[in-house]
Amino acid sequence: MDEFTERKALFDRGIDFYREKKYDEALECFRRVAEESPNNHVIQHFLGLAKLRTGNASSALVNLAFEEKLMQTSNLSPEKKASLQKHIIFSRALCFCVLEEFEKAAVILLEHLDKEIGDN
């Protein structure tokens, strides 16, 4: 099995663990994949979500910010970037809620709402 196939299998196992709410196991899978592919925005997203689910919202915010940076410089279509941006925004807001930084969460969500209204 080549390296890509091994990473894909490990990532898929992490997704399965995440769906089964085995967040510690998912986190370990995503960490191992991120070691080999740190510049993959999808991996950073799921690594952030797993960290959030295991009680590390501060660290999750770091991964989500990195994901956002990677996603913006990717070759994704504008539509796909917009869709992913929404996931990042809501995930970041959730992190701030977990950290009981409700004003920061509100600012993120209101800025997004203002942008959505302005785009229509």
Which helices and strands occur, and which strands form pairs?
Blueprint: H1 3-19, H2 23-36, H3 41-53, H4 57-72, H5 78-98, H6 102-119
Write up what this structure looks like.
It contains 6 helices and no strands. With 120 residues, the chain is mainly alpha-helical. The protein has one domain: Tetratricopeptide repeat domain (Serine Threonine Protein Phosphatase 5, Tetratricopeptide repeat). Helix 1 runs antiparallel to helix 2, helix 2 runs antiparallel to helix 3 and helix 4 packs antiparallel against helix 5. The longest helix has 21 residues. The chain is globular and about 50 Å long. The model has no long low-confidence stretch (mean pLDDT 93).
Brief summary of the model shown:
The chain is mainly α and 120 residues long. It has six helices and no strands.
List descriptors:
120 residues, mainly alpha, Serine Threonine Protein Phosphatase 5, Tetratricopeptide repeat, 6 helices, 82% helix
Q: How far do the termini sit from each other? A: 48 Å
Count of all domains = 1
Q: What overall form do the CA principal axes indicate?
A: globular
Stretches where pLDDT is under 50 for at least 5 consecutive residues are none
Helix content: over 70%
Largest sheet: none
The beta-strand count equals 0
The second-level CATH architecture is Alpha Horseshoe
